[in-house]
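Thread: "does anyone have the structure for this chain?"

Original post by V.I.:
We have the sequence but no experimental structure in hand. Need at least a predicted one for the grant figures.
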Amino acid sequence: GFLRIFAAWILDDDLPWTTGESNMLSNLFKYLKISYALPSDTAVCNELVKIFAELHAKVVEELSVRVFIILEMSMIYTFACSIASFIDDNWVLIECIIDFRPLESKEHEGI
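Reply from O.Q.:
Generated one for you, C-alpha cells below.
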C-alpha cells in the first residue's frame, strides 16, 4: 500500500527517513486533500526491514539448492553435483558443493 511505496521512494531517492515528518510535505498533502497519514521515520524503517526480509527470502529461495547433473555422452564417467547457493548479509553470493559423486551406468536415465 501507501506505506510500502512511500518507504521505497525514500530509499530510492536517498531521502532522510524523517521525510514523512516534514511540515511542508504535510501541508502539501492537506492542500491536495490526500487522506493518507504521513509515516514517521520508525514506520519507514520498519517497512524497509519488511521489504528487505521479503526480498532476501525470495533470493534465498531461488538460489538455495540447485542440482547440476553433468551428462556428456563423450565422457567416460557421469557425475551428479548438488550445490547450495545463498547470499550472505553483505550481499555476497556464496556457493558450496554439498555432494559430488559419479553416477552408475543408466542411473542418470531414471532407471
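V.I.: this helps a lot. The beta strands are 65-70, 78-87, 93-103.
O.Q.: and The mean pLDDT is 80.
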